């Protein structure tokens, strides 16, 4: 399948490139299917590929020697995995795990860095995306310190909903507690509070979004800030 012309193999970040740059870039990509739970990067390991999700979702996770884990960002159709390559780095500082199965465009790290050198438009776009990513990570750190768990849970569900197809999310309380860096009991209380308000429905291993506007109202302002930053830095280039 020619991913240079098919809209079904689209990534919003790459769609922001000028047409000729986009076609040249996609010509060197391959389409891969990523299964749930697959690890695309590990801290300290060499980065072999850059990934540009089509309809999959990837969590970027900071890990501690004690075994603690905290999601600091996520990448879906709007982004990429392998951002250290933009800076000429060869190793990852974060773990990247597929949270939602699906397809992605994949390019070798050497080829990606070659395109960066040959395409000023790609270099500018990647720098803007890196700025968005840094803003999102900073926002998440502040959000974890200042905002209620219920608001943070709503924000996380909205971010996941944005990057997946459909209203049903495959998420366990154990996984969500790890991503938010809190105890499972706390996530359970937050999810039940959102469910009582009719915003979501939770069953074992699955959360269904019923009231998207209501979920946005329940979230802290960090969610709207993240979307605004992306729109200002990336989408206006398309």
Identify the notable features of this structure and list them briefly.
238 residues; alpha+beta; Jelly Rolls; Arc Repressor Mutant, subunit A; 2 domains; four-stranded antiparallel β-sheet; three-stranded antiparallel β-sheet; 10 strands; 21% strand; cAMP-binding domain of CRP or a regulatory subunit of cAMP-dependent protein kinases
Describe the structure.
With about 240 residues, the protein is of the alpha+beta class. The protein folds into 2 domains: about 5-140, Jelly Rolls (Sandwich), CATH 2.60.120; about 150-220, Winged helix-like DNA-binding domain superfamily/Winged helix DNA-binding domain (Arc Repressor Mutant, subunit A), CATH 1.10.10. Helix content is about 45%, strand content about 20%. It has 9 helices and 10 strands. Strand 9 (about 200-205) and strand 10 form a beta hairpin. The model has no long low-confidence stretch (mean pLDDT about 85).
Sequence-ordered SSE layout with sheet pairings:
Blueprint (H helix, E strand, L loop, with lengths): L11 H4 L3 H9 L2 E5 L4 E3 L7 E5 L3 E7 L5 E7 L19 E6 L1 E7 H10 L1 H27 L2 H14 L5 E2 L3 H8 L3 H13 L3 E4 L2 E4 L2 H7 L3 H12 L5
Antiparallel strand pairs: 1-7, 2-6, 3-7, 4-5, 4-6, 8-10, 9-10
Helix pairs in contact: 4-9, 5-7, 5-8, 6-7
Protein name: cAMP-binding domain of CRP or a regulatory subunit of cAMP-dependent protein kinases
GO cellular component, one term: cytosol
Keywords: DNA-binding, Kinase, Transcription, Transcription regulation, Transferase
